Structures are given as structure tokens and as C-alpha cells.
Amino acid sequence: QVQLVESGGGMVQTGGSLRLSCAASGFTFSSYAMGWFRQAPGKEREFVAVIRGSKDFTYYVDSVKGRFTISRDGAKNTVFLQMNSLKPEDTAVYYCAAVLDRPYSGSYYSSRSVYSYWGQGTQVTVSS
After folding, report:
1. Most CB contacts within 10 A, which of 37, 46, 55, 120?
2. Long-range own/partner contacts, residues 98-103 (CB < 8 A, 24 or more apart)
3. pLDDT at 56 over 90
């Protein structure tokens, strides 16, 4: 049974940092690209970042480049999202997701429709 369990969300002030984790089980972790998405109230779920199974490919939405870093630990079957210099507009529920690893471009991985598995989400709130 596939499970993706996010943790690490919370409330921080503008300029603060958080590190999200997503523990995966029930599938071959190294064969999957892992993505992070977020959904703010009243808005559609949007792509944030992805890392492929080989770790040598990462891709970010422009709004988080230079502030967020995605990484993965194969020994722990866990993907991380380090978020620095947080802004109020980063406030959202953050979801991790998994899709079979393919040699496709970042635009492919930015589409939520390609992902097979999703976590339940973790709330991130950035106060001004």
C-alpha cells in the first residue's frame, strides 16, 4: 500500500525557514520522481519543485528559485523541501507527490495530472 506522509509544516514569520519532509512507502522509491505542490485558499494546486530518482535533475517554479531546495534520501525513502526566505505568498497546504521517473523535461513534471500518488498535505503559514 502506497503512502506519502508529509511533516514539518507550521507557522513562521516573513524571512523565516521551514524544512518539509515526505516519507514514502509501498513503492520502489528510486524509480520515482518526487514533486512538491502547494495549494493556497481559493487557488488551484500549483507545482513547486521536483527531483528525479537519480537526483541529478531538479526543477523549480520561478517564484521559489533561489529560496527553496528539494532533495531526497534514498536510504530513508524521504524527500525534503528546504524553504528559506519565506514570504506570506508562500502560505499554502504543501503536498508531496510521486510519478514514475522518465527522462522528460521540467514542464512534464510540473503538471499535477502526471502524478500517481499524493500525500495528505501539511500546512505552511507565513505571517507578515
Report:
1. 37
2. 98/2, 98/4, 98/24, 98/27, 98/32, 98/33, 98/34, 98/35, 99/32, 99/33, 99/35, 100/31, 100/32, 100/33, 101/31, 101/32, 101/33, 101/52, 101/53, 101/54, 102/33
3. no
